[in-house]
Design goal:
8 helices, 133 residues, 80% helix, globular, mainly alpha
């Protein structure tokens, strides 16, 4: 995550980061799908590194949020955003951990990727950057 945040945050202008939200969300969700295969340990590590880099999608959403929240409430707004994000990020492991009790672990992890990609594609119109003009 740190690598993705630093690279995307430093290398791209805010408008480009907004355009990268959809691709980065897909980068986050796609690698776990490969864990349905019996991959060697280095490939699994690579999949998780790629997934972490994709987490930089949040940088592309922050400007919209910043513009939507009144300036006197931005500190509280970002605290609430981060708390909500972390809460929802913890629900996935809980749900898919239950799946892992009944399914092979690789399949349960692959389902997290399928869920992420499916959600991204269903929300793609909401995720697309705003067009000016």
């Amino acid at each position: 995550m740190l690598i993705g945040d630093v690279v995307v945050g430093r290398a791209f202008a805010p408008a480009t980061r907004e355009r990268l939200v959809l691709p980065l969300l897909l980068v986050t969700g796609t690698p776990p799908i490969t864990l349905i295969l019996d991959l060697p340990h280095p490939a699994i590590v690579a999949a998780y590194v790629i997934t972490g880099v994709g987490s930089a999608y949040l940088l592309g959403l922050q400007r919209r949020f910043l513009e939507a929240v009144p300036s006197n409430l931005q500190g509280q707004g970002f605290a609430l955003l981060n708390t909500t994000t972390m809460t929802f990020q913890k629900i996935g492991p809980l749900v898919f951990g239950v799946f892992a009790e009944f399914l092979p672990v690789g399949l349960a992890i692959a389902l997290t990727g399928v869920s992420s990609v499916t959600t991204t594609l269903l929300l793609r119109d909401a995720i697309r950057p705003r067009t000016s003009g």
